[in-house]
Amino acid sequence: MALFIQRCFDAVANGVIYSTVALALVIVFRATATLNLAQGEMANVAAYIGLVLRTPATPALAGTGLAASIIPGTPWPFWAAVVAAVGSGALLGAGVERLIVRRLTDAKGLAVVSATVGTLLLMNGTTEAVWRPVVRGFPSLFSNKPNDYLAVSGGRLRYTTLGTLLTMFVVLLILGFVLHITKLGLAFRAVSSDRAASALVGIRVGRITMLGWALAGAIGGLAACLVAPTVLLEPNMMVRVLVFSLVAATLGGLDSLGGALVGGVTVGVTQTMLAGYVPFVGSTLSLPCALAVMVLVLLVRPAGLFGRRLVERV
Amino acid sequence: MKQLPLIELETATATRVVEFGRDDRTIERGSRQWRMLVVGCAMLAVAVVALLPFFLPVIEGRLVSRVVGIGVALVGLQFCVGRAGQLSLCHGVFVGLGSYAMTLSVARMGWPHLVGLLVAPVVGFVAGSFVGVLAVRIKATYLGPVTISVAVAFPMIVKRFSWFTGGSSGLGIVGELNAPQWFASVVGRPHLWNHVIIVAVGTVAVILASNVTRSPVGLAVRAMADAPLAAAASGVNLWRMRVVAYGWSAAFGALGGALLVIDTPIVGADSYDVFRSLGYFAAMMVGGVSSMIGAAIGAIILVAVPWLTDTFSLTTGPNVVLGALLVLSTLLAPHGLAVGVLALVRRRVRVTESAD
C-alpha cells in the first residue's frame, strides 16, 4: 500500500511536468493552429541560460565568462536566474514566431511543420555545440534535502513535488485569469477562433499571435527549470519530455487547457504504474505504452478527450 | 483577309515568336525526343554514380554508396509526404527496420544477402501499413505527434529485445558479400562489388518507384492529396490509399536501410534515434518533395553534412547545419532546391505540355 501511494506521488510529479509543457503546446496551437515541435528545445536553451546566469565564471560552462563580463551582478541568486530563464524562454518563443513562422508563405501544413522541425534541429545542435553533451546538475527550486517530505500513510510526498504542483496551479490560475478577464485574453480567444474576423474588428492579429508564442515559451522555460533538477540538464533532456507532453496534449485534444492538465496526469500515471507493476514493460517500454494509450484514445475519439470537433463546410 | 479577334491575334503572334525564337530547344512533354532526353540524363547519372567510387579513395567511395542507399529511402519518404500529403516524421524507423531485417536475416537466420534484400521491403511495407491504419482514423493534425512518438519509441523497443537485436552494442554481419572471381581479378578492389550491387538494386528501386508513382495507385494517392472529397466521389478508396501510401513509403525506406547495411554491415539501436527520422524529413524538404532530383539533393546533403563536420572536426554536430538549412529553405525556397535545378534546365530547354 505504501508503495502504491509512493507511486501515485511519483506519477503526479511526472504528470505535472508533462501537463506544463502540454499547456505551452496548447497555447501555441490555439494561437497558430500548429504544433510547435521546437517547444522542448526552446525550453532547454532557456534552462541553460538560467544555469549560466547563476554560475560563477568557469571554463567548464560556456557563456559564464561572457556573462560575468557583460551582465552586472552575476552570478545571480537562483530565483533571479529562473526568472531570467522564463524571460528568455518568452523571448525565444516570440522570436521564432516573428522571424520564422510569420514569414512563411504557406502558413498552414507542411511549411510550419518543417519550420518547427528545423528550429528543433538548429537549437538542439547549437546547445550541443555550445554546452557540450555533458550531464549537468541543476539546483532545485524548492528545498530538496533528504528529510524534506511529508509522510502520507507510508508514502513520501516530497516538497519539490508539492512545489511543482503548486507552481502548475498558479500558472493555470494566472492563465485562466488573463484569458477570461483581461482584454488581451479576449483578443487571444478571438484570434484563436477566427483570425480573419479578428483582423476585421481591429485586433492586431500578428502581435497577439506573437504574445501567445512568448507566453508558451515562458511556460516551457519554467517547465524545463522544474524538470532539470530530477532528470539532470543535458542537450537532449527535453526530447523525451516533449514527446510525453505531445502525447499528453494530443490526449487532451490540443486546443483545451484543461485537457492538457488531464492528459499530462494520465500520461504520468500510465508511465509510472506500468513501469512499476508490469515487469515486462519496465522503464524502457513506458513510452511505447503511453503511445499505445494515445492511439487507443484517438481511435475512439479522433479529436482527443476534450478537443472541439470541427465540422467543415464543403 | 479575315480579321482575327484581338486576343486570338495576340496569342497567335506570341506562339509564333516562341516557335521561331526557340524552335530547336522546344520539346513536347511525352514526345519521343523528351523521353530520350530524360532517359539519357538518368542513364548518365547512374553511370556517374556507379563509376565514381572506382576513381576515389575507399572512404570517399563509400560515401557514394551511402548516397544511393539514403536516396532510395528518401524516394520512399517523398511518396508519402509529397504525393500522398501525409506527414511522416518516423521514416528513420522504417529505414531502421529495413537495416535490422537485413542484418537479422543474414546474421541470425543465416540466409543469403539476396533474401535479406527481399525481406526488408516486405517488413517495411507491413510496418508502414500499420502506421497507415492509424492514419486512417486520426486527424491530420495529430499525425505529427503520433509519428514523432513512434520515432522516439523505436530505439527503446529495439533495446528491450536486445537478446535478439543486439541492442545498443549493435549486431554485425560477419560473412560479407563476396565478389565473384572475375570482378576481383579485373578491378583489383573486391570491396567495390558492394557498391555495384547497391547501385544495381538502387536503380531498380528508383525505376519501380517512378512506376508506382505513375500507376493507378500513384494517381489515386495524388488525387487524395489534392482533393480528398473529389477523389472519393470519383471512386478512390481513401482509407485504402492512406494505408498504401505509408506502406509503399516504408517499403522503399526499408530497402534503402538494407542497402545501407550492405555498405556498413552493423546496426546499433542508438543510431536510429529520433534525430535520424527528423534528419530524413529535413533533407527531403530541403531537396524538394516532388521530383527524384529532390531526393538526390537530399541524400547528398544527408551524407555530405556529417562528413564535412567530421572532416573539419567542428564542434557542431550535423544537426545545426541541417536545422539551419531547413529553416532557410522554408523561408527562401519553400518548394525545395530541386525546383531551382529544374528552372535552370528549363532556361536551356523549353518543355511544352502535350496537346491532348
How is this fold's topology laid out?
The complex is a heterodimer of chains A (314) and B (356).
Chain A: H1 2-32, H2 39-54, H3 64-70, H4 78-99, H5 110-131, E1 149-152, E2 155-158, H6 159-181, H7 183-193, H8 195-200, H9 205-231, H10 237-252, H11 257-277, H12 286-300
Chain B: H1 6-22, E1 26-28, H2 32-51, H3 58-83, H4 91-108, H5 113-137, H6 143-160, H7 162-165, E2 171-172, H8 181-187, H9 192-214, H10 216-226, H11 228-233, H12 238-263, E3 266-267, H13 274-287, H14 292-311, H15 318-332, H16 337-348, E4 350-352
Parallel strand pairs in B: 1-4
Antiparallel strand pairs in B: 2-3
Task: Report the C-alpha radius of gyration of chain B, rounded.
Answer: 23 Å
Counting DSSP H or I runs of 4 or more residues, the number of helices of chain B is: 16
Low-pLDDT runs of chain A? none
How would you characterize the largest beta sheet of chain B?
A: 2 strands, parallel
The span between the termini of chain A is 56 Å
Residue share in helices of chain A?
55-70%
Oligomer: heterodimer
Approximate helicity band of chain B: over 70%
The biggest sheet of chain A amounts to: 2 strands, antiparallel
Beta-strand residue percentage of chain A = under 5%
**Alpha-beta classification of chain A:** mainly alpha
Q: Supply the number of helical segments of chain A.
A: 12
